[in-house]
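Title: Prediction job returns without error message
Component: structure pipeline
Severity: low
Priority: P3
Assignee: unassigned

Description:
Job completed but the reporter wants confirmation the result is attached to the right record. Sequence as submitted:
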Amino acid sequence: MNDLGAQYLRYKDEIDRAIQNVIDSGQFIKGPIVNQFEADLSKYLGGVEVITCGNGTDALQIALMALDLKEGDEVITTPFTFAATAEVIALLKLKPVFVDIKPDTYCIDPTKIEEAITPATRCIIPVHLFGTIADMNAIMAIADLYGLYVIEDAAQSLGSLYKMNDGNTVHSGTIGHIGTTSFFPSKNLGCFGDGGALFTKDRVLAEKIRMIANHGTKVKYNHEIIGVNSRLDSIQAAILNVKLQYLDMDISARIKAAAIYDQLLHGHGEITSPIATENATHSYHQYTVRVKNRSKVRVRLGEAGISSMIYYPIPLHIQKAFAFAGGVIGRFPVTECACDEVLSLPIYPDITKEKIEKVVAHL
């Protein structure tokens, strides 16, 4: 599904030198390289505040904590995503409210959000799945109308761009009140372990987020609010700062690989290829098709030595852990259909045309 070794070899000298510099400095936690990475990522994202943390799940939890939501407040999100998105809502004793997805992008369907809003609704968390971006123009309009917060889960879409109604093109994760991302190794920008970050244009909110991630302190041993311990270590920041320089190049390689898939799969009626929407670029964190008889297809691909993955086989609303949210089979038919049919194929910056041709031939 991915070849992290090939990517490392492209940047080996720079990464090895960056790691050695951290070791030589002896500053492994909250060292200057972490500050440098935050500043460089901020510049890449157009000047928003960037606060790094331990992982993408922590980023979501810290974002919700920063909004001072109260027990029982409702947060609207999608049932077609990794569990972390809804998990942090429940951990904070908030209520996840699921809304079905669009069949083409797999992102939350804005046309179904308003009917899920109640007097207890406080926030919307759209997930930018597989590398594309949810319909943020519509989502932000709804949020403005009802006075709701928006937290973007941009763990799979760092580097993707979105065109706003005012004509400005902005980065995924910088549109809502807070954006979150993950630096898990397989992500568009991945480290050699765990890592995450939050983005916001609001400096006051950024200061609060930074405090929450650091035990609720601005000054050591002076705890002003309840916080957590979530930080990106210096070695991971050093690796990320090298890879950040090549992020757009790597995304361009993903887009070219997706174009080869698109061309080879064109006209195969039993296979539905992913699409890039009019307002958003697609960074193809995953190349996800839809097929009937998926389990049989996947077995045959495996027999041919071809990897594939299912993201996600069980929708959140029928997971046992989220039974309290009142989900039942049949409630979100678009999501349930997607869970039965989606299949992600190998895609990464170093994949060759020959490998893609082999995948498609067997598929």
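Comment from assignee: result matches the submitted record. DSSP finds twelve helices and 14 strands in the chain.
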